[in-house]
Amino acid sequence: MRVSIAGAGAVGRSIAAELLENGHEVLLIDKAPTAISVERVPMAEWLLADACEITSLDEAALQRCNVVIAATGDDKVNLVVSLLAKTEYGVPRVVARVNNPKNEWLFNESWGVDVAVSTPRLMSALVEEAVSVGDLVRLLRFSHGDANLVELTLPPESALAGTRVGDVAWPEDTSLVTIIRGTRVLTPSVEESLEAGDELLFVAAQAREEQLEDLLSVRRELTED
């Protein structure tokens, strides 16, 4: 897979190093000469250019990319890069970094963004995830279909503890994708039984999140007493 990353700062370089380690081709683009640190990620391709300019993206051969990641520290730049990647070059997958949570609403398919990653929101979500049992935590937002990656740790008092996955009447527009049980990562099957303390990861429509939380959390009669 070929990936272009706009923004060769600490975030862009870290992403590049991880992708290279997994066997992908990576091109880092940045307009600041001081950001071009080939020795830090020597296996990557490097391009000194403005990723908001069509001529630069032509030089980067963006049409050959499977994924473009807009990872600069400027939300305006990330939106422009995302829009150009999607509309001018038809890049199948565009991932954009959101620096200011107030701008998150802009990072959607109208701007060519398939996945928006808000670092402040993700950090706060991870804090919530670490301390919350029975509360739904939103980890990541997907632009297409208005869906989110959400997590909920099944509390001991949940009515679904001990229930088989295939016997649960899940809300529409939700999909259980992973069960994390201790150190194990389980692919859900219809025969797998849910256990108290399981971390459940779903892709769910935002409109279904409250319904999903009600289904999985503590029994209503217990919370009302």
Automatic annotation (TrEMBL):
Domain RCK C-terminal: 137-218
InterPro entries noted in UniProt: K_uptake_TrkA (IPR006036), NAD(P)-bd_dom_sf (IPR036291), RCK_C (IPR006037), RCK_C_sf (IPR036721), RCK_N (IPR003148), Trk_Ktr_HKT_K-transport (IPR050721)
Protein origin, superkingdom: Bacteria
Domain RCK N-terminal: start-end pairs: 1-117
GO MF annotation: an example: potassium ion transmembrane transporter activity
Keywords for this protein: Ion transport, NAD, Potassium, Potassium transport, Transport
GO CC terms: plasma membrane
Matching SUPFAM superfamilies: NAD(P)-binding Rossmann-fold domains, TrkA C-terminal domain-like
PANTHER family the record matches: POTASSIUM CHANNEL PROTEIN 2-RELATED-RELATED, TRK SYSTEM POTASSIUM UPTAKE PROTEIN TRKA
Name of the protein in its database record: Trk system potassium uptake protein TrkA
Organism: Streptomyces fulvorobeus
Lineage: Bacteria, Bacillati, Actinomycetota, Actinomycetes, Kitasatosporales
